[in-house]
Amino acid sequence: KMLGKNQSELLQEIDAEFLSSHYLPKIEAPALILHADNDRLVPSYLGEWLYKAAQDGGKKNVKFILFPADLRLGHKYIYSAPGLSHFIKDLEDTAADFRNRFQIK
After folding, report:
1. Residue 2 forms beta bridges with which residues?
2. What is this structure's pTM?
């Protein structure tokens, strides 16, 4: 607690909430959620919760990748995750299919 309030209350007061779970299901384009199991800044259960919220909101084209803690990626080294280029390429292909279906250039 800070100033007698929890973090959520403080973020709400200054209009700085992270409302990804509200907006992600509304985005028609494909989405990829990447998370490291040993992220101490943003716990992995929040990534899992965002993925579930997206699915519960009707989003079908979302993927969640949880990298194991033994990779030691934490919050800031996820860019070096093994296989990341494969996941990005898969997202690019899915996005290209999405653009073609809706004739987006």
Report:
1. 5
2. 0.79
